Amino acid sequence: MPVWLREHSWRQTLTAVYLSLPLRGARATPSSIFCSEQFLKVSIPPFLFEAVLYAPIDDTNSTAKIGNGNIFFTLYKKEPAMWDSLTLANTDKEKLQYLRENAVLKAQEKAKEETEARKITKQEHKKYTLEATMKVEEAERKRIEDLKEKERQKVVKELELWKKQQKDGDKNKSIQKTGELYQEIEPLKERKNEKMKKTQIPNEGTSKTRLKSAKGSCSIFSQNSKEEQLPAPRAAATIQISFTPRVFPTALRESRVAEEEEWLHKQAEARRIINSDLSELEDLKEEEKNPDWLKDKGNKMFAMGDYLGAVNAYNLAVRLNNSLPVLYLNRAACHLKLRNLHKAIEDSSKALELLTPPVPDNENARVKAHVRRGTAFCQLELYTEGLQDYEAALKIDPKNKIIEKDAEKIRNLIQGTMQSS
Amino acid sequence: MSAAVGAERPQVVSHVQQALSYTVFDCKWVPRSARLLCLGSAARGTGIVQLYELHGARLELLREIEKPKPIKCGTFGATSLQQRYLATGDFDGNLNIWNLEAPEIPVYSVKGHKEIINSIDGVGGLGIGEGAPEIVTGSRDGTVKVWDPRQNDTPVANMEPVQGESKRDCWTVAFGNAYNQEERVVCAGYDNGDIKLFDLKNMSLRWETNIKNGVCSVEFDRKDINMNKLVATSLEGKFHVFDMRTQHPTKGFASVSEKAQKSTIWQVRHLPQNRDIFMTSGGSGSLHLWKYQYPAQRSKKDSEGSEMGVAGSLSLLQNVTLSTQPISSLDWSPDKKGLCVCGAFDQTVRVLIVTKLNKI
């Protein structure tokens, strides 16, 4: 049960009501006061004070002062009139309840309105600041543009001036030129006249034409004199040139230099390694210690059908130098023929390993390695792996029909086995 | 555009822009006038030559000439000031010299090369330098030929690859060292990065080097003086400036190189009024204005006592982006300092003014 606070005192003027409410030791905070147009409530548990006011007040402007153990309300009346009493007399419970609820609702609405209003003002402020910054930036930009415009106009004026000068200059020059021409013609005419005076009379008939041609020929004269100043055309000659050689046929921008360099490097390294250990090698002849020679020997034996001999040759070559991919490649081919399929797979794999990085140079070798490994897989009936290798080979060399056909065959085989199983 | 309208830096002001209905490959000022020429290729596969005059803030088309084959390059370098004949190289390998007043029949014509003439240069005309006027053309067939307009059908010098060797496209040619009647030098740049310097007086190869990337453009700072500097630009944004005054017997010429833009540098052109300032145009549609500063000592002795050149340093004066497409051609006006025209692959030709060059 709340404890009602009834010891309040109040006085009024025409426009305001001053209410003083002593709190019996309770601490009041602004949230404990609830005020609406006609309803005032102070709730500090367990204390409670309620008042249904005689007349509506302006609750937004009214104030409450908390301090000194009491709350001092200054309520501004909506209509200036003298109240008979602070509260409405004879209010029944229902009315009270109704009023209370109303008051609460009204207060809520007011709160909502207030937040709305606040939001709107905030937005407007934001807009305003944005516009202000935009204006400032605009101004700055404009300033720069103006400077540039000024420069441009200055420059354009200069250009026009210069053009005028050019035109005048040209006019003057043409006047000068014709003047010069006349000057040139005069002495020439004189010379011609003298010549004619010296020559016999029958030539006088042609003198007029000569005069005319003199005018035309004066320009030829001037040209001739100029030409004499120029040297004769050069004697024709050819200079043979050659271009900087490149290991790869493509120019720098087309090649994948880094990888190609790596590949070259590897090849060079491989050639240099000579695993000269084993004592058994001592009784071999000099040439038999050369991996290249052994490789050639192996190739010859393969061509003749002596696969075991070829394998031996390659084995020895590998012992001497185990980083030449071509040896493994060829040995794989021999193993295929000998139907040592696992060994063939091993060797082609080793060859592929050594054939990194993938560059156009070792394309052929890689195609061969893939094809051989693929064949071995197929012969072991591991068709999917075989197909993988064939597809890899096709990727490197898409134009090879044989590989395409074989890949097709394998695909059909796989589909056939899948259907049957 | 660079943001800072800084105090003393030269500014590149775009004065006029003209949209064209064809691809423009070369643009040149007509000497002693405010007229410019645009050379290119129309969509229907014919060559176009257009003559414009600068009128205030616009270009007025004075004349349009159409030729059967697209035209790649042109020069006024080998004609006299009175005649102002234009020498052009076209896609078919023909070298023609035209009188623009009567362009139906060329003044000189020869089928000089088997493939497109990529670059052309002329020397000895326009009152600049001494010696006979000559034209050099560089073509995709790997040869560089020097022509004299007084001699029909055969070139006066032919720089061709040795028989049987693979050829590389010649992308650019330039004359230089024409300071008296006998001396002359031709520099050629190829697509594999080779730069070769041919001496026409001795008819021999004087120097060659390789700058690894294809050479798009070479130019001497002046054609008519003892060769002083050579700028060679290449793909991938790099260009080299060679100091040509001192040739070392093995190391050749000293050079400084700069990587300016991420894209190809299509052209380099020196300012006719100041040979230490040049502009490079790039594949990203940008123009860079550079200044070369000479070192304290231009040559020094190396360990064996032979003279070796010392390259100077470069500073970027200004840079501006005008277009999204490469600016393939650039020409300074020989009459007005700072006036230049550039043609880009977005089918526009722009007239620009570079300010404050007096203060450099």
Automatic annotation (TrEMBL), chain A:
PROSITE patterns on file: CS, TPR
Keyword annotations of the record: Cell projection, Coiled coil, Cytoplasm, Neurogenesis, Nucleus, Repeat, TPR repeat
TPR repeat boundaries on the chain: 367-400
Coiled coil (residue ranges): 104-154
GO biological process, one term: outer dynein arm assembly
Cellular component, GO annotation: dynein axonemal particle; extracellular region; neuron projection; nucleus
CS domain mapped to chain residues: 3-87
Entry's Gene Ontology molecular function annotations: nuclear estrogen receptor binding
Region entry Disordered, spans: 193-215
Membrane-spanning intervals of the chain: none
Location of the protein in the cell: Cell projection, Neuron projection; Dynein axonemal particle; Nucleus
Principal cellular location given in the protein's record: other
Family annotation (InterPro entries): CS_dom (IPR007052), CS_DYX1C1 (IPR037894), Dynein_assembly_factor_4 (IPR052004), HSP20-like_chaperone (IPR008978), TPR-like_helical_dom_sf (IPR011990), TPR_rpt (IPR019734)
Pfam families linked to this entry: CS (PF04969)
Protein name, UniProt field: Dynein axonemal assembly factor 4
The organism of origin for this protein: Leucopsar rothschildi
Gene label: Dnaaf4
Automatic annotation (TrEMBL), chain B:
Compartments (UniProt record): Dynein axonemal particle
Main subcellular location of this protein, as a coarse class: other
Keyword Disulfide bond among record annotations: no
Protein name from the UniProt record: Dynein axonemal assembly factor 10
SMART domains, per database record: WD40 (SM00320)
Protein species of origin: Leucopsar rothschildi (Bali myna)
Function: Key assembly factor specifically required for the stability of axonemal dynein heavy chains in cytoplasm.
Organism taxonomic ancestry: Eukaryota, Metazoa, Chordata, Craniata, Vertebrata
Pfam family of the protein (one): WD40
GO cellular component: dynein axonemal particle
GO process terms (BP): apoptotic process
SUPFAM superfamilies per record: WD40 repeat-like
PANTHER family associated with the record: MRNA EXPORT FACTOR AND BUB3
Domain of life: Eukaryota
UniProt keywords, alphabetically: Apoptosis, Cytoplasm, Repeat, WD repeat
Each WD repeat, start to end: 135-157
